[in-house]
Amino acid sequence: MGTRERRLKILQLSPKDEEDHLSWIVYILECADKTLYTGITKNLQRRLQAHEKGKGAKYTRGRGPFSLLYTETHPTMGQALQREAQIKQFDPRSKRDLSSSNTQR
Quick one: which of 16, 59, 66, 91 could link to 29 by a disulfide (CB 3.0–4.6 Å)? Predict the structure, then answer.
């Protein structure tokens, strides 16, 4: 295998490796009963599908369908967890105000 082939092989990422390079996403869902759920993920589409199938967070089971109200990205899991904890302390009105101010940060 020549240098060029080795270089190309190194640059090819598996789906797992690609996911490892994604930012962490903090998100707010509105459940069918109008309650709000805040969570984090690296793959928002997969996480939303899990919520819809009842395999997401325990809180969201049986509360679908869901509306995605808000997302913001963070470079590390630690930062995303800190922001999630901060948002979870907000009252529902503040969470809705946050979601109406910006749908993606």
Answer: 66
Q: What is the pLDDT of residue 101?
A: 79
- pLDDT exceeds 60 at position 37: yes
> Within 10 Å of residue 67's Cβ, how many Cβ atoms?
13
pTM for the complete prediction?
A: 0.77
pLDDT on residue 34: 96
Residue with tokens 């509306």: 67
For the chain, what's the residue count?
A: 105
Give CA torsion, residues 39, 40, 45, 49, to 10 deg: -40
CATH fold for domain 22-101: GIY-YIG endonuclease (3.40.1440)
10 touches 4 (CB < 8 A): no
